[in-house]
Amino acid sequence: MSLSTDAASTAHDHHGFEPFKLADPFAAYKELREEEPVMFDERIGYFVVSRYADVKATFDDWQTFSSANAQAPIRPLGESAKRIMAEGGFTTYSGLSARVPPEHTRIRAVATKAFTPRRYKVLEPFIRENVNVLIDTMVAKGTEGNILTDIAWDLPTITIFTLIGVPQEMIGEVKEWAGSRAAITWGDLTDAEQEPHARNLVNYWNFCQKLVSDAKITPGDNLVTDLVNLQAAGDEITDHEIASFLYSLLFAGHETTTTLISNTLRELLTLPESYRAVTDDPKKIPGAIDEVLRISGSIFAWRRTAVVDAEIDGVKIPKGSNLLLLMASANRDPEVFTDPDRFDIERANARNHLSFGYGIHYCIGNLLGKLQVRIAVEELTRRLPQLRLAPDAQIEYGENLSFRVPTAVPVEFS
Ligand code: HEM
Fold first, then answer.
1. Burial of 208 (0-12, 13-18, 19+ CB in 10 A)
2. In total, how many domains does the chain have?
3. What is the CATH number of the domain that holds 167?
4. Which of ligand 1's atoms lies nearest the C-alpha of 302?
5. For 353-369, what is each residue's pLDDT tens digit?
6. pLDDT tens for each residue of 114-131
7. Torsion of CA 293, 406, 391, 155, to 10 degrees
8. How close is the Cα of 251 to the center of ligand 1, in Å?
9. Segments forming the whole domain that contains residue 140
């Protein structure tokens, strides 16, 4: 049975909030912020937190609100999925985001040494070249394209693969595995629907472990080798932890950026004067990207669990409770953002959005993600200043608790 509307409580209408429906939740978010900023949603078993100040403070207080549940399947694994994963030797849970101090602090310190801006800044010309190859291919097909599949799908994957040291032929497979991870962790699946995804996760995990063992035999100029070398030099990180970090990166490193590139173009083209403004003055692109992250981030909600009895906005949160932090609602809180539903690429405080989280788990890849979106927009505006949304473009979003992924961004450029 579905966890969402079918099991809806008769107690109240949840202010129109539907946990898995992310296409247009903004009216519900507004009502939640105004009427019940901390609401217990019994359909998912989570306290739903919607105001900016509360979301930020909860992220910031890791001693009270741990991220241990951030990667737990929202719908517990069925027996068959559990069996497939146990038999396949699937033993990871999270690389960083659901680990807690002191373990998180130790692993993040090693990861940060390897994951330096210097390591990925050298990728900039390579990213630009790839964007241009993708634009060439799109343009060669005619006068219509789809930003999601033609540009945004491959670009971050090629980047993260090169950074980590994964062969390009694996793109299709890893994208599929990553999709399975999103579906099984944040989707609303039946036991039977979980099974193929469980098989994919087994393959995904075995692949990450092999990357580590291979790097010990055949080192390369890449991040896995850097991590293996740090370990050899005495940094405290096990092979299992390195493989788990790769398991994180091979998901977080492209899914979210694919979505951000797609949403950036969709927002800019929906308000064509903003696309014109960044075409005329590329210095406006970084601000525009922050505004897209604010109004249309890749991740709408993230999770925490209370490790002690707590209280938010006067609502008691008993120890052991789960919390769903609605960053996409916080990002439209009028207490912080004036006229919050308006897309404004010159908004002075757009950078205060919470789409990368906040505090000790703040997204480690935020600069790499934004770098790729910036280059994609720079090259698209330079080469296709006449780009526009296809007139009949129907942009839909798949159902998910956290990841708001458009199904297509159809464009024209005749
Ligand atoms: C560009 C769009 C991206 C968005 C919207 C995004 C969003 C997020 C969010 C919401 C978190 C959780 C923060 C928290 O719990 O406080 C996170 C953590 C993380 N992100 Fe990203 N991310 C993006 C790109 C990337 C990229 C490109 C990478 C890697 C190359 C990456 C790697 C990670 C990792 C490893 C963590 C866990 C950090 C920790 O727990 O210490 N992300 N990200």
1. buried
2. 1
3. 1.10.630.10
4. 10
5. 999 999 999 999 999 99
6. 888 777 778 999 999 999
7. 80
8. 10
9. 5-412
